[in-house]
């Protein structure tokens, strides 16, 4: 038989009843009860003015309304992020035209891209350089209007021999008032993956690496 234990502090056994968690925020019911109590106990010689009373009600309503708006915005932001994630996932396996001065070719492969020409010009040219900085191919695109001018490199060097597989640097220029000016190059590359981060998402491009999505200028579904 187990004998009864009297005078034992349940707290010593870790069996004390849980304490009710105190509310840290003033809800609508608490605010109204506080207002009613304030009205009941006001000084009859200095009663609370109606304008002051209504001002307190309006202030509480404004705070509650702002909290509701913030909650709605948080929900909207979550929906937008989810929507962006679904759209970004659809990029995998497609070809993206991105701003980059780097490109890569496989053995016997080729490289496509574009040059962003700020104004119409009498001539656009591209130098394709290897890892050592040596020019392996010159591409002359001739007179072009303002905008994107597409180019295709067949993977051959200036002598007609196949260039080695690997990465290459692209240096583009255009004729501006009888002088040469630099131009931005863009490269076609397959999207291998999409990475999400605190500042948005980046795309992982084959032969180029990670770039922010803002670098993407065009997306096509023509990946061979």
Structure description:
The structure is a single chain. By secondary structure, the chain is of the alpha+beta class. It folds into 2 domains: 28-89; 95-220, Immunoglobulin-like, CATH 2.60.40.4070. The chain has 2 helices and 11 strands, in the order H-H-E-E-E-E-E-E-E-E-E-E-E. Strands 1, 2, 3, 4, 5, 6, 7, 8, 9, 10 and 11 form an 11-stranded antiparallel beta sheet that branches. It is elongated. The N and C termini lie far apart (83 Å). The model is unreliable at 1-5 (pLDDT under 50).
Summarize the structure.
The chain is of the alpha+beta class and 224 residues long.
The domain tally reads 2
Order of helices and strands: HHEEEEEEEEEEE
CATH topology name of the largest domain, in short, is Immunoglobulin-like
**Secondary-structure content class:** alpha+beta
The CATH level-2 architecture of the largest domain is identified as Sandwich
**Residues in helices, as a percent range:** 10-25%
Low-confidence stretches: 1-5
Any idea of the CATH class of the largest domain? Mainly Beta
β-strand percent reads 35-45%
What is the molecular shape?
Answer: elongated
Number of alpha- plus pi-helical segments: 2
Q: Terminal Cα separation, in Å?
A: 83 Å
Mean pLDDT: 77
Number of strands: 11
**Whole-number radius of gyration?**
35 Å
- Biggest sheet: strands, sense, closure? 11 strands, antiparallel
